Amino acid sequence: TIYKRNLEDVKFQIAQEDDDLETAHDEDNKTKDTTKGPGGAEILALAGKSDLVKGVYEGGLKTWECALDLVAYLAEQKENYDGKKVLELGCGSALPGIYVLTQSNTVKVDLQDYNDQVLQLVTLPNILLNTCLRPDQQPARDESVETHTKLFMGDWSGLVDLMAFKDDADKYDLILTSETIYSEESQPKLYVTIKNSLKRGGKALVAAKTFYFGVGGDILSFRRLVEQDNVFDIKVVFSAQAFVRREILELTFKA
């Protein structure tokens, strides 16, 4: 079982924080940082109006279907994650990454999302709910959550530099991502991040719908991008029939 925070919890926290901010508003007004990105209330308002606001909100407050597909696929594989290093890109609620985190006491799972507010309001609470705060009272980890996971915020374009890999062995054994190829414009940044963060012998799993209405991205355009670069072998390892078919693609380095 994977526990996750629901949207009502997020709304309650934001309302409480807004009350606290109102109380301190007069004292803080002169030093307020006007360059900061949208706060929790703004992100929640955006999420209520649209699944995507380019450059502002990338849908991270919701748990999307392909994330659940990826969790189900990982559960079927029954892999041993002991000592492995895993990255989830565009994590949002981070259920695939959290599933892996719960499967081993020695796995390291790092999570990235575009929005800092998504990481604070959804990702981190979900991590805690499934580790040291699990409702089913499973034994707690011997080490803190910080030992096993790190959160990254921002655009993919600067992520590899931020990670500062020492060598290939320092890279990730497994990279997970779901519902992140919806924009054809952003696919190259995602692909380059995967290529430069995955170690030789590792694999990446990309869960997505075959087509995204209104935003232009699709699996075919992503496959074309990967195949033209001729660095990875790519294959479909999971498919779910629906009004819009959902698939999971596996990327592994060519021999």
Key words describing this protein structure:
255 residues; alpha/beta; 7-stranded mixed β-sheet; 9 helices
H/E topology pattern? HHHEHEHHEHEHEHEE
**Please, how many helices?**
9
Biggest β-sheet: count, sense, barrel? 7 strands, mixed
Query: On the 0-100 scale, what is the average pLDDT?
Result: 84
Low-confidence stretches: 30-37
The strand line-up of the biggest sheet is 3-2-1-4-5-7-6
The portion of residues assigned to helices is 25-40%
Shape: globular
Please report the distance between the alpha carbons of the first and last residues: 37 Å
What features would you describe in this structure?
- The chain is of the alpha/beta class and 255 residues long.
- A hairpin with a 5-residue loop joins strand 6 and strand 7.
- It is built from nine helices and seven strands.
- The chain has a seven-stranded mixed sheet, sandwiched between helices.
